[in-house]
Amino acid sequence: MRRNFTPVRAAIGLVALAWIPAIAPTPARAGVTPATLATWPIVVPTKASPAERHAAEEFREFASKVAGAKSPMEIISTDAPPAHAILLGKAASLKTDDLGEEGYRIRVDDGRVEIAGGGPRGTLYGVYAFLEDDLGVRFLWHDATFVPADRATRAIAAGERAFRPRFAWRYSYFGVINAHPAFAARMRNNATTSAPELGGNSPWTLISHSVPEWVPVATLGKEHPEYFSLVDGKRRAFMKEDNAEDGGTQPCFSNPEVKRRIIDGVLAKIKREGKASGNVSISQNDNTQYCRCDACRAIDEREDSHMGALLTLLNEAADAVAKEHPGVFVGTLAYQFSRKPPKHLRPRPNVAIQLCSIEACQLHPLDDPECPLNVAFCKDLEGWCRITPNVYVWNYNTNFASYNSPCPNLDVIGPNVKYLAAHGVKGVFMQAPGNAQNTELCELRNDLISRMLWDPSHDDRRIRETFIDAFYGRAAGKVKEYLALIQDAARKSGVHQGCFGPAASYGITADVARKGLAILQQAMADAENPTIRDRVEKMTISPRTVLLDDLARWIQHHGGATTQPPADLIGRTRDDFRELLRLYDRHGVDRFSEGISTDQIRGIH
């Protein structure tokens, strides 16, 4: 599992009846403009929550800018608002009991704007929706927000609309989302912060490898080898973390003492943390050394899946949890050896499955019937969705071997999210370079991922076009040309590739990189100011990384600069590598790959 802490497309609306898609408002009546709003007070209830107050502050900041107001709008707390006002949260007179925790309702007329949500995040998200959809604001990056200069006197559509997000749990796993919780809230990610002014986060947490917490091989392996997996006739009472495929172990999930330790440990953890909702994880180690003892093998053979023994334990744990903590789910990973759904077993109602797509192809949509890697994944996902409504997905959106090499998956992100939504998936963790800052196209990818997770009915291509136009200004045309070159090269190559590999394995050759670099250099010349030029210059890191692919492979294999590359490789790459390091420093790039920081490679050459 990578994290570092962590065939026919269905219509989305056919599932998840609780999802309320955005409803287009009725035509505007004259007089309601941003300039008019800027003269009205923003009203919050007298006992406003921190999130309602923050929503008012966000509304004031950006609505005032759109209106070109000379002074900021007034925020007042009152239960008797004036005739003309913006009413937020419980100050509004809107129905909210059908909106869940994060849905919102917006009403606009000649004298009022009312925005209210079913929970603190709902009101805050409603404000962000109004700022973007009605006033033209676009949140781009933690330090970049587009505010239109021509909307002050444009009429705002009148009427009422409601929205409730399709996914209950949304996590765009980029370094910037983890480092800037206020920006994460603006992008409607709900998995990163408990700050009350940002509405708190979802009670759901990422399901990850957890069984070592209760069955640690380091302390139990010597005296109790029977607690661990039997492989090739021997108990693997050790963990070799540096080689997850060949090393490591799993608990013997059919062993009664292993079950007791895990179930007792889970119950104690829930009590200790005071959980009343959300989930607790019981999930395998990050290797494929599952137990082949007679008891485990009998269950797995009966179920035609190596999830058999693990799910048997999960169901027992879920029964115990349901008795003492009825609002808490027990979650596990369907990952590698446990990905296939069982033939007969069914998860308990309080068991959640988080399916992982690590073997899937990043260059083709998940539901592409011509992609063999993805056909297999879809078969498993649809199988799980048939036997439980509690399916979450861990999806991969980067090249772990080279964070800054082109990862040509922009065309598939939108279709993938739509596919997951259509099949009833409850929440999605979109893993990107979460342990790094300023990786390849992180700004565009985060925008696309976050907006599609918030509303899968969006047109993903329009999201991309709008972002590129706003973020790259006059250089946008050449940026689009570069992206088309990279995407087309990958598509035409005919390769299938997951989340590890050199550039060539994604269909990106040195010739493509040279053409791409030339396009981006033209884009830099088109840039209207230093900020835009810098944004484009950062993009040149990707084709430059491809042109250093031989050195990049050496670095990945050797783990940094512990030894020096061969003399001929140094001679061929010295100047280009120094330029790459200069760009790293200038643009705050802190990692070469998932496991190698930029500091680790500075000694090369």
Automatic annotation (TrEMBL):
The keyword Transmembrane does not apply. GO terms for molecular function: hydrolase activity, acting on glycosyl bonds. Residues 1-30 form the signal peptide. This is Beta-hexosaminidase bacterial type N-terminal domain-containing protein. It comes from the Bacteria. PANTHER family: ALPHA GLUCURONIDASE N-TERMINAL DOMAIN-CONTAINING PROTEIN, COAGULATION FACTOR 5/8 TYPE, C-TERMINAL. InterPro entries: DUF4838 (IPR032287), Hex-like_dom2 (IPR029018), HEX_bac_N (IPR015882). Keywords: Glycosidase, Hydrolase, Signal.
